[in-house]
Amino acid sequence: MRVRLVVRTLSELCVTVGTVIVLFVVYVLYWTGVRADSAMNDEIGRLQDEWSTGPVDGPGEGAGHGDGDGGTSGGRAAAGAPRPPAKAPTPGKSFAVMYIPRFGAGWAKPVLEGTGPELLKKGLGHYAGTARPGATGNFAVAGHRRTHGDPFKDIPRLRPGDAVVLNDGTTWFTYRVDRPPYRTRPDDLGVIDPVPAKAGYRGPGRYLTLTTCEPEWGHSHRLIVWAHLDATAPVADGRPAALSG
């Protein structure tokens, strides 16, 4: 009798533990994604409302179209590249929307100022202290690979020449990827330097860095993607060519 009681108790315990594990997996794989997608859509909607109903700090002199050689030469940035708005982003707030055509026509994520865990549940995070979109230096952005909407799940698919486009309410910034994703350790902070040496850049330019976790379901390493500013255009001109088709 006692053995049967022990067996039954253990069986019930296993069922309970199994149920908890299943619920946790559902939460991680599904519910965090639902909440993150809703939060990201809310951030983008808020930005679009803000841009459409109120003045946005515009770019300075030299705004307009541009193409340049901000790649491995690192010397000459996009011609006519506008200066970023004078007002710095507010910590914890979204200030731009990123588009990566390689990830699908509907892929659009808000970029928030800061990289804290709570911020990365609502979108991509801009490393404080790195450059602004379109500015000389390195505009560095972090995002989850998995969970919380899986924003950078497909980073391994990026290839040289792929576009990464940003809209800050006044200007479209089109960056072009320079090399396949680079794998490194989490403490390799040089990847977001103003001139990240491991990217092959030899001097100052207008660069972009994307960072996410590696492996896909772990965090022992990081995947890094570097790009250079290829072109700019006023938002009033409509969507850039990189987002067409």
What proportion of the residues is helical, as a percent range? Answer: 10-25%
Shape summary:
globular
Classification by helices and strands: alpha+beta
How are the strands ordered across the major sheet? 2-3-4-5-9-10-7-6
The quaternary organization reads as single chain
Can you tell me the residue ranges where pLDDT is under 50 for at least 5 consecutive residues?
14-28, 57-84
What share of the residues does DSSP label as strand, in percent? 15-25%
Number of helices: 1
Summarize model confidence as the mean pLDDT: 82
Give me the count of strands: 10
Radius of gyration: 21 Å
Helix-strand topology string: HEEEEEEEEEE
Report on the biggest sheet: 8 strands, mixed, barrel
Describe this protein with a few key phrases:
245 residues; alpha+beta; eight-stranded mixed β-barrel; 1 helix; 10 strands; 21% helix
How is this fold's topology laid out?
Elements: H1 2-53, E1 66-67, E2 94-99, E3 108-113, E4 124-126, E5 137-142, E6 163-167, E7 171-177, E8 182-184, E9 206-214, E10 221-234
Parallel strand pairs: 3-4, 5-9
Antiparallel strand pairs: 1-10, 2-3, 2-6, 4-5, 6-7, 7-10, 8-10, 9-10
Summary of the model, kept short:
Pfam families: Sortase. The protein has 245 residues and is an alpha+beta fold.
What does this structure look like?
- With 245 residues, this protein is an alpha+beta fold.
- It is 21% helix and 25% strand.
- The protein contains 1 helix and 10 strands, in the order H-E-E-E-E-E-E-E-E-E-E.
- The protein has an 8-stranded mixed barrel.
- A hairpin with a 6-residue loop joins strand 9 and strand 10.
- The termini are far apart.
- About 18% of the residues have low confidence.
